[in-house]
Amino acid sequence: MNAPLHSFEPSVLIETAAARVSRAAPGARLSLQARGDLPPLNAALGLDLPTRIGRRARAGALEAICLGPEEWMLHAPEAQAVEILSACAEVYASRPRSLVDVSGRETTFVIDGPRAAELLTLGCARDIDGIAVGEGRRTAFDGVTVILWRDGETSFRMDCWHSFAPHVQHLLEIGCRELAAETI
Amino acid sequence: MLLIHCPYCDETLPEVEFTYAGQAHVVRPADPSSTSDSEWEAFLFLRENPKGAHYERWRHLHGCGRFFNAVRDTVSDRFLTTYAAGAPRPDLSDLIERAK
Ligand SMILES: [Zn+2]
Asked: pTM value?
């Protein structure tokens, strides 16, 4: 990590006429890999894990996104992590799987504003409009693996590893300024 | 930039999300200790180098993370097909016919 600690506090990092980039508050992130029958896991989580790549599901504050066949990322408030881990531990004997707490590994940028989707094209080669509102995808942003959550037409979240965060942040900030300069 | 169809995501996505992973359908001998040196050498090192259709592995690294197989024309870079890992080798004449 080569950014000062204060830069990882939740805050607006940049806001222009084009878009706004903020850092989301920290939360629990759990990486889940499981195959076979999902119902026992669904019961433990209290949520139906989506089985199509890119689809999401939510139950209260717990959110799940399907990243690949047999792979999901779970987001929840920090306090809920222990509860989720122990609920899943109870079904481990019948449903072996991998559930790893990766909360400390990643950070989330919240990107919104009228030209948010266009801002993402600065680093994403894939068509942003191929991601429907309410879905998400793991993709690459300027070579960095990120998980993009599309919460609205012009509202996104981007999860990336801490070690890449300063680079991603810098690029997003440049993009926000460039797009705003264009509109003048 | 190449556009590659991931059979797991069922989406056609930019090349930068993928990595190349060598020749496909290379099968490890079930009992290595009973193979001859030359069979073992062939398994480890000897690869095809065709001018034309090549059966190869790719990985959707910045995506679903899965390895899958593809048939790519090494001259035109055109992908004739992609298919899930473990699926049988598709017949080449069918692919070429379909690509016309
Ligand atoms: Zn994929």
From this structure: 0.91
